[in-house]
Amino acid sequence: MLRHAFLLGLLALTPGLPAHRYTEVLVAANQNSPESVGLAHHFVARRAIPPENLVLLDCPGEETISREVFDRSIHWPLLRHLARSPLGPRVKFLVLMRGVPIRIEAGRAAASPERTMRASVDSELTLLRWELMDPRHLPPLEGPLANPYFHADPELRGTAGFDPRLWPLTLVTRLDGFSADDVRALIARADTPRRPGRFAID
To answer: Would 158 be classed as within a structural domain?
Structure first.
């Protein structure tokens, strides 16, 4: 399914959360990439994220993978971790590290662009909490799925932050860049955020 991207989990990148809130952050890295693992340990240490909230995935290093490989090496391992971990029910945010695949190929040809199974890894994983809470009523893989949190009334969203009791979603973000140094710089810059400025979302 080509799902609409959910809100970037920027809270997972910044040091401004109270210490106990970092139990709500799950970090996933590619165990077959020393760079990915090193960046994950660096991020977990800088943000004091509980070590048990770091998941090392046995996934390929390619940016594009099949649906079967996604399910076997990324989707199901993360779902099992959340289901078995005592901290699993608290997790609101998922941070994917550089080295984790980016996209899922369409596979078989779709009858129309609206029925494609091509998707981003990040957007597919936003439904992890939904799968844990209501696995019998998941949306179909084919076609787009509107983002209920993005389109929600601002008054309903409020100012207290993301509430999974209202939206059965996991907010997913990715720490990536042209190089590992770019990722480390991104983590470091979040320590001293500036209010004015510009940013771009690719």
So the answer is: no
